[in-house]
Structure formats: C-alpha cells, structure tokens
Amino acid sequence: MAITVVGSVAFDSIETPAGRRERCLGGAATYFSLSASFFTDVRVIAVVGEDFGRRQEAVFQARNIDTRGLERASGKSFFWEGSYLEDINEAKTHNTELNVFAAFEPKIPAEYGDSEFLFLANIDPVLQRRVREAMPKVKLVAGDTMNYWINGHRPALLEVLKGLDILLINDTETRMLGDNRNLLQASRAVMQMGPKTLVVKHGEYGATLFHHTTPKGRGAELRAPGLPLEEVVDPTGAGDSFAGGFFGYLASQGDPTPAAYRKAMFYGSVMGSFACERFGTERLQQLTRQEIDQRFQLFRELTSLD
Amino acid sequence: MAITVVGSVAFDSIETPAGRRERCLGGAATYFSLSASFFTDVRVIAVVGEDFGRRQEAVFQARNIDTRGLERASGKSFFWEGSYLEDINEAKTHNTELNVFAAFEPKIPAEYGDSEFLFLANIDPVLQRRVREAMPKVKLVAGDTMNYWINGHRPALLEVLKGLDILLINDTETRMLGDNRNLLQASRAVMQMGPKTLVVKHGEYGATLFHHTTPKGRGAELRAPGLPLEEVVDPTGAGDSFAGGFFGYLASQGDPTPAAYRKAMFYGSVMGSFACERFGTERLQQLTRQEIDQRFQLFRELTSLD
Q: How near does any CA of chain B get to the CA of A150, in Å?
C-alpha cells in the first residue's frame, strides 16, 4: 500500500572523519522516501527551491517515488551544514537556512488521496497536524519529531501525537517528551499521549519497540540490534532511513500483524545501517533489494540464539 | 566445571536517584562470584580486612562459593564511594581507599588447583598475570580491565592479554585499547593482542560478541540486548554480574560450543539486568534459578523475529 510522506527535502554540507561533501541531497523526506521505496509505493510532499534541479529530481524518479507533491518555490532549498568530527554519533550543526521551507504550506495532490499510510517526518507540528487532518482516510499514521519541538512547541506537538499510531524518536527525545529519566517509564508516558506504538532509536545500538499493551514485567516488545560497521562514513539520515525501512515494510504488509512489526524493526535497522556507509543518500541510491535481504538475514543471525 | 576468580571484595557506599547505601558488600569478585554461582562451582581469591565479618562471609556461603582463598589481613577492606546522580549510566567516584588491597599478593589454595576455568577480574595486570601463571592447567581464561590500566599500565596489560581466551570490556575501553574510534576495527585490534573472543559491554544496550574468525562482512557474532528496566536502582556491579553469568554458563557447559557462547551472552545480559534492580548485591543474593530462566526466556522473546 502507498505511503505519503511530508517533510524536508534539502541540501546538506557534511563533514565527518571520512571526509567532506558540499550540498549533497538530503532532508528527512528524502532519506525516508528512498528507504521506503524498496518496500512500497512512496509519494512525497515537500517544498524545494530553484537550486533543486533535474539531477536531484532524478534521484527520486530512479526509485519510482511520486514527486507530484514536490512544490517548486522561488528562492533556495532548505540547507543544513553540520559535522560529526568529535563524536560520530552526534551531529554538530554549523548552519541552518530554512529558505523556501520558512513559508512551507503543504499541498496534497489529489492523486495522493488514496494513500493508506502517512508518515509525518520531523517538521513543525502545526504542519504535521494540517497534513494529518487533510488525509482523514489513512489507515496508519507514523511520525517523528525532535528536541526543538518537544521543548518549544509542546502544545502543538501534543495535538499531533493524539493523531499518531506510531511515533519514532530517539532515547533523549523519549526521556524529554515523557519527562522521565527512566526509558521504560518515559515510553509509557509518551504512549499515553496518543501513539499506541513507540519506536525508540538508539543510534549504533539499534532500536526498541514498545507497545501500549506490553505487560508490565516484560519491558519492551522487541529490541532490534544495530550492526557494527566497518566504517561509519556519514550518519546523516540514518534515523529517517530507519523510519523508511520500518514503515515501508509495514505498508508492504497491508494490515500489519505483531509479527510484521517485529520484522519491520529489523528492516529499519538494516536501512539505517546502509545509510551510514556512504555520504548523504549515495548508498541508498545504489542499493538493491537483494542486498537488503542479505543484510536482513545477517541481522537475524546477529540476534539468533540457536 | 569450577571457576576460580581473582579480584576485589570490597565495601561500597553508593548514591543513586533511588537512594543511598553505606558500606554495602561489593567488589568485582563478589558480583562475579554471586552471579556465576547460579551456574557452576565458584572459588574466590581476594583479600579482606578486619571489617569483613560473618555477615559478609555468609553471603558467599549461602551461594556455596568456596572462600578458602579469601585472605584476612589486618586493616580495612577495599572501599569505594560513588554516585550516579546526573547520569544513571555513569559512576562518579568520590573516594577510593585501597586499604588491605594495596599489598595484595594473591595466594592460590591447593584445593583450587583443579579449576578448569579462570576469571581475572579488574585488578592490577601484574597480579592478573601472576595468578594466570600459577594456574597453568586451566582450560579457559577470561578477564576484565579498565581505563586506568589501559592508559597507565599498558605493557603489563599486554602481557596479560597474551594469556587470555576471552576479554570482557566496555565500548570506551575497547576503543582505547584498540586505539581506534570504530568499534569493529578496535575489536579486531584487541583480538590481535591475544584474546580470540571479545565481549564488548554496552551498558543498558546489551553487549556484542566478537570472535577472531568472524568473517569481515559480518561485523559481529552476536548482539545480546539489554532489558529496559522499570527502575535502575543501582548499576554498580552490572558488568561483573554480566561476566559472572556469561562465564558461569560457559563453565557449566564444559567444552563450550559456538552455540554455548551465544547463550552465554544472553545469560550475561540477564544477570546484569538483575544486578541493577536493587542496591549492591541485594538482588543477586535473593535470586532463584527459576527467575533467571524466566528472564532468559524474556530476552529470547525480546529479540526473536518469529
């Protein structure tokens, strides 16, 4: 089933111990779309500037991603500059230019109306809510957010959370949003805000699946591992790629069962691990479904007791 | 098969968000022994002072741990005072008094001579090496170390590593010892120093098993998860309890197979999770084998795809 995703399509200048890249294609919606496109049809809603040309468009087209919701505005695309020099797990932001994103008003193409899955990538919760309300027919809604919205735009974010089935955030965001230093207790508090399912991403250590019906003594539903990589070239977009693999697999299953959620966690980890192997979206652009399945098998062996 | 362990038996004063305890029984050899005693016979080598009385001795006896190698010296036992107030995952040391430990000369009782498994807990590598050499008949040797020895006593530590089959350390220690920020590459460098097997402990995120024959594309042999706990009361000794569960289970299997190593990783995580549930060794003292097996099953479900 098709996923509509709303979020940022951007240019990133990135420096890591492996090198530096200027203005490579990035943005949460880009990573999510590329990743999810290996599993199901993806339709993207975003705004780009005049610097977004045929080369960038071709990246989406090569993966059959529907770009009719990609609005062209006069001005420059969203731009982010950051580095991971001291700690490969932590981005240091040097510059953020919202550019055309500052006045972004998501418009949903009529052709997207029958999407059954909706992903609200990390943008202003006011926009997330607007898109959610404009697509009342969707069956399953997942979303992401970040510290900035949790701290400074809590009321708007809480409105979004009420309409989410699944929230995907990291450890720090979970503790902050749930206002509890204990991850398990924080996760329960977050699930009382709306999402029945919470995926907490642990960076290189994988991710944990919480569900509101998980019995108290159990802790969590599933913990998917991270894969120790030969070289983490660039962790930018790993979380969005995780979300794309997770939600893309779920959408491919139609009516997701508990077993599908478990597999989705592993596909999320698989896609996150690939994203880190090259700069920007380079690895996702060159990936094959066969490589994905091979790595899925590797993740299975990495956790299998028998 | 029996394990002999050499390390510290100590008193700890601990403060965590859950409260404070004064001078509770602690030390790496204590946590390791209690944890391993649920799987196999354990024999301890350590030195204690006059403050170590019948009550402390009874904790070992209740678990049938052989204390004939527990030397009594005049003076006070090793004492550590620390807190986990800002970050539950990171101990802040307020005071360390070596006391009788300063002049510790490990003596191995004749009755320990037929031990087939040896664990060198985190102490001066000069002492670790001496014990290793005094027990040439052991079949499998595992050990632990810490930043202090890696940074300041590297030549002595390298001598110990040559005689180790298994090293259990954490992420930071692995990167420091292997002199590489990439965990996978650091782990390979460490395994070239002697230990064919490396267990890297990730605190709340579990642990990873590396083996020198693991193919390059694979990354690691196994990643065991951590268990999200309702309350982390006191993380002191969690790593030593992990080691006790891991090595205790291996010893219980006689000639450990690759499958036994995988199960041992999970038993390690199980024992580490219990250790955090109460202050000091309280939880390990009250634990039953049935509780261990139940939690092992829970860990299995936490990682099972099917």
A: 21
Question: What digits encode the pLDDT tens for the residues B248-261?
Answer: 999 999 888 999 99
Q: Which residue in chain A has the smallest CA separation from B17?
A: A181
B208 touches chain A (CB under 8 A): yes
Helix (H) or strand (E) holding B130, with range, is: helix B125-134
Please name the member of A219, A259, A303 whose beta carbon is closest to the beta carbon of B223: A303
CA distance B45 to B12: 19
Sign, Cα dihedral of B113, B119, B121, B126: positive
Tokens coding A2 = 């098709």
Rg (CA), chain A: 18
Q: At what angle do helices B238-252 and B258-275 cross, to 10 degrees?
A: 150
Beta carbons of A220 and B302 less than 8 Å apart: yes
Enumerate the β-bridge partners of residue B10. B26, B78
Kind of pairing, strands A78-83 and A92-97? antiparallel
Q: Quick check: helix, strand or coil at residue B108?
A: coil
Retrieve residue B145's tokens: 């170390």
Give the HSE-up count for residue A150: Cα atoms under 13 Å, Cβ half-sphere.
Answer: 18
Q: Does residue A206 come out as left (phi exceeding 0), alpha (psi in the -120 to 50 range) or beta?
A: left
DSSP string covering A40-57: S-EEEEEEE-TT--HHHH
Q: Write out chain A residues lying below 8 Å of B216, CB-based.
A: 230
Residue A223 to residues A97, A133, B182, B205, B207, Cα–Cα distance (Å): 36, 32, 22, 9, 13
Establish how many alpha carbons lie within 13 A of residue B16's alpha carbon, considering only the half-sphere containing its beta carbon.
Answer: 21
Q: Which amino acid is at B59?
A: V
> Distance between CA atoms of A44 and A241, rounded to whole angstroms?
15
pLDDT band at A215 (very low <50, low <70, confident <90, very high): confident
Q: What is the pTM of this model?
A: 0.95
Segment A63-119, tens digit of pLDDT: 999 999 999 999 999 999 999 998 888 899 999 999 999 999 999 999 999 999 999
Q: Which residues of chain B have pLDDT under 50?
A: none
Distance CA A150, CA B266 (A): 35
Q: How many CB pairs under 8 A join A and B?
A: 105
Distances (CA, A) of A49 to A27, A94, A120, A123, B82: 13, 21, 21, 17, 55
- Please check whether residue B305 touches A, CB under 8 A: yes
